[in-house]
Amino acid sequence: MAAYMPGRPDASEPAPLLGREDERLALDRLVETVGEGLSGALVLVGEAGIGKTRLLEYAADAAAAELQIARVSGVEPETRLAFAALHRLLLPFLDRADRLPGPQRDALGSAFGLVPGPPADRFLIGLATLTLLADVASVRPLMCLVDDAQWLDRESLEVLAFVGRRLHADGVGLLLTVRDEPTGTSALGGLPTFHVAGLAEPDARRLLTAVAGRLGPQVAERIVAEARGNPLALVELADELSGDQPLLPGPLPVGRRMEAHFLRQVRAMPAETQSLLLVASVAPPDDPAVLWRATALLGLSPEAADIAVSEGILSLRPDLVFRHPLIRSAVYAGARPADRRLVHKTLAAVIDRDRDPDRRAWHLASATVGIDEDVAMELERASERARSHGGYSAQGAFLLRAAELTPDPERRADRLFASARAHLVAGDPLVAQSLLERAVPGLNAPEMRAGAQQLRAAIEMFFARVTAVPSILLEAASTIGPLDGRTVRGMLFQALEAAMVARRYTTGTTLAEVARTALGTPLAPRARATIPDLLLDAFATRIAVGYLPAVPLLRAAIAALRTDSDLVEAGMPLAVLGWMATADLWDDRGLLAVVERLDTFDRDQGALHALRLTLLNLASCELWAGRFGNAEAHHAEATEIAVAVGLSADKPIYQVELLAWQGREAETRAVVDTVIGGWAEQRGSASTANHVLLSLTVLELSLGRYHEALACALRVYDDDEPGVGSLILPDVVEAGVRAGDRAAASAALARLSERATASGTSWALGMLARSRALMADDDHAEVLYGESVEHLGRTLVATELARAHLLYGEWLRRRGRRSDARDRLRIAYDMFAAMGASAFAERARVELLATGERARKRTEQTDHHLTPQETQVAGLAAGGATNAEIATRLFITASTVEYHLNKVFRKLGITSRRQLARTLHDEPAPGDA
């Protein structure tokens, strides 16, 4: 690795790169990829002065001939202004914003304060940014260069990270540089990263010789050792030394040493130049007029900048900027506090109150010592503007500073609490927790103390410490008063949600106690029942009273989820509760209707956290329908979203039911070992443990391991969680009968009979008939098996219909009716083999062999070898969706859709969208001759 050789700071041409072969190769590859119409992202990480900015310039030079270039640099004064960096990056392209889909256009306009409206979801803003950049790149590929990303405002950084994870075939490149510091850039996790190291010793010596000529060997040796390959340190330390200076002072970190070096240079300049530099260190980088108005107000001459330019402290590119960010930091940190306050006061005076009120408010706050309610009010108003744009980290920062300036203790506590809440929404739970602890002693109003407990519970949920949440909220609801009834029921709803997840792991209270408390807090007589009200009453009744009284309440909640207009994703995603309610009633069509509606709603709102779990429930629908390829596609998209929003995907855990149905024994058992072996207890999620045990039961039944299946099933049966507690009943019956434990089978059948009769759905009645057939004598079993097939044939649950045929065929074979058995077993085998349920298919094949028929093993053609995303794109296109509609639905771009469709056409051997439906589903496509 060789050195780069910097030119003088005011050189008109950028310095040439010497060496850096690995870095240049990575950058050339990125530029080439973008130039070919694909996309890529790369993060250059390294210490200050290591050469990241010079590498960014190299990429810009490499891209200049063929690509458009958009660039932005992070600066410390901007870090508290939400979406400021994103606005600067996109400003040249905002004239194309009217081409965005409506929700995306509104989201971006809201983020930039261009249109009124509620705060937009940050991921919808991310999708709008992605779509806008892809639209720009459709004219000519685009390279986005972001320097010093550690100083971007948090909102902008998160949006760019989201974009980087969703780029695919858009002709857009994203190259960021960031300091290798432990905080501030976690949002970039998951993006490709290149760590820029220091120069090797021979290259460092070459650079030193190039910039300083011949030095004494001791001096050169010490400079190379102290700089540790950092090019900026080599250049600046060599420039600082006199030719006869034999040794340097003791070792310091490179950043601190460079700041001290730059500060010495600045302090050698005239006082007027130093004052101008201090103003420049905090003036807005995108509005040079503010800088010159402030210097004029302070009586500083513009010519005072000349010496700073000639000495390489400032450069003209074309506006006045610091040559290196460390110089800006050194100037500001090295100034006297009184001088800094004077500059902030001056900037507040010259910034237009109407055009830039938030920056003005922050400068006022920075100019203030002690307390000042007027300035605190300015900051509070700025926080509301930030919140209205979706800038929650900025809101939190404004409110925290407002609290520090607030003279009244109670109002200070209120502002600290509001700041804590904003920081949690922004994803800073540790800061939120600290601020909440400071706020609580001063919160006197009951509703504020109740809100503090809700926030405390939300922080626990953020840290996946769900077990304590119910007791926190239950105690708050019962001890803080008087509270509005809606507030209390809202807290109880959150408590019940958490307790339904934690179940036996709940601490400080019990699930049953939470349910009884909820039932003891009914809705006001004339109040309109919202969806949370209906779900609270239904599940509280199911848990505290019993199944039968809960049935009409569950039906009412499902109906509201299907039709009511007041859908709001808050707390546990509605799809989870909808799944529990519909599965408890074996309501397959209700489940599909609910999750499809929520899928549309979550996508329209950009609510990706909720959408991720909605997709997992859509995967269940597809799995039960026997469309395993579609289920895999939903799981894949859920995993992509988890990565995009910075969550742990835990893909195998959430996909365990599909793994079990596919007969992937080793993978299923690995998930079970993980969850039951400690994951569930650590996360406080007994609900996940139940789901995993239900899946393991299916696997054991498919393998004919009936004793093992019964042991798993009984654990779920005993807990009787809404949803899985009902779904497990037919499995307990089957496993109990085949394992010889008719007592267990009889108890499960009794519960199943009561519930299925109350439910009355075809799925419920089909499972009841099938289970009764397993327990019946020969005179009645055949009629019951026939009823089961008939009922299940009217449902969407192909997996259970196939199992009914299998059990019916097995019963016929054991009766010696081999010909009749073959018919049923062949149906079962064909269904299982087609859907990819390999273990159940093998069980059916072995039974067929026992009838004397030689069944061939079939290899499932999994969606023509399409990837999960190709499967999704192809399915939507086959249904008539346009590229733009598919892109909006899948949170990708239209060019990426086109890229996937081209690959689909090649794999399927077709030439047009009109052929997709016939090829994918073996049915004629509309208008296809």
From TrEMBL:
Superkingdom assignment: Bacteria
Gene Ontology MF terms in the entry: DNA binding
Keyword DNA-binding: yes
Stretches that traverse the bilayer: none
Keywords, alphabetical: ATP-binding, DNA-binding, Nucleotide-binding
InterPro entries according to UniProt: AAA_16, P-loop_NTPase, Sig_transdc_resp-reg_C-effctor, Tscrpt_reg_LuxR_C, WH-like_DNA-bd_sf
HTH luxR-type domain: residues covered: 859-924
Protein name (Swiss-Prot/TrEMBL): DNA-binding CsgD family transcriptional regulator
